[in-house]
Write a structure and sequence with these properties.
Elements: E1 2-6, H1 11-15, H2 20-29, E2 32-35, E3 39-43, H3 46-64, H4 73-83, H5 89-98, H6 111-122, E4 125-129, H7 136-149, E5 155-160, H8 176-194, H9 197-205, E6 209-213, E7 225-229, H10 237-244, E8 252-257, H11 271-278, E9 285-289, H12 299-324, H13 334-347, E10 358-360
Helix pairs in contact: 2-4, 6-7, 7-8, 10-11, 12-13
Length: about 375
Amino acid sequence: MKKSIGVSPNIETLFGTRDENVRLLEDGLNITINLRSNAIELEGAAKDVARAEQVFADYETLQRAGHTFNNGDLNSMLRVLTSDPNSTLRGLADAGRQRSFGRRTVQPKSSNQRRYLEAIEKHDMVFGIGPAGTGKTYLAVAMAISALMAKRVNRIILARPAVEAGERLGFLPGTLQDKIDPYLRPLYDALYDMLEPEKVDRYLEKNVIEIAPIAFMRGRTLNDSFVILDEAQNTTSEQMKMFVTRLGFNSKAVITGDITQIDLPNARRSGLLEAMEVLKNVNGLAFTLFDEGDVVRHHLVQRIVRAYDEHKTRVTEQQMFLLAEPRNPEAASAGEKQAAAAANAAAAIPPAAGEDKTASAEAKG
């Protein structure tokens, strides 16, 4: 099917730098887009052409309404739109305007990010699980600030396990707060990015925003709070159970983590992995699972995450091949035994991506 539509003003913005947005639409909707002297020609299946036509119509409507697209927001919206058949450009733009995130305008840059924000709005406890750079923590802090600014909660509590990433830092000088601050720095970074520094300092001083290691959560009941547990893959089973039972009245909890970056010593079982198994059928909470397609850092990060995933798959297949071979246990080398044990451990990990991206359950009446 071929269809021609008129050229709207400032259409070059929709096309993007070096026509990157046009290529994105062509690949995502399986169509061909040609710019003529006074029209845009769309070619493809009728359903796909109709979706592309709707994109151009929405863009023109938003332009006339005075909407401006900044910092790659349009490209991000188009990525969401091409991966989610139920989304529209106007709907995504309106969703971005409806949320207030301090001094930042935060726009979901993938369909999973949009589902993540919707899950946080609808549920009192949400797990965001996926690789680095997918916006799990940043978006959770944005939603916490939005809730605080709208007076839906009275305080924000940000917690993190104090676990080194593969190295021992030794005894740090200073007060207790000085010692734990390095572990909590990513949370401070997100806060200062979204709020004026003076306001962050004032909130921290008055404990309106509290940042602490997860060990400080024991024995507390957190009412009227937005609670975020970051780097949850580095919690023990006992810490995770303690945290998820802290939730009080009129509170929300968001737990984020990356199960491929577990730094717990002595090969201890991650509390996040256990929670994924134990809580998967509990009504009233939601799981949002991210993959490398949701990475919004430098484009190299997405490729790096994919390379590690492919490497892990190859290693697992090799280990499973060793397990399948009939061997005399007495003759098996120590290396083969270790590989078999690692494969058994990997098989026990629940799937984190590639299946149903968002598994959520509404509370029963």
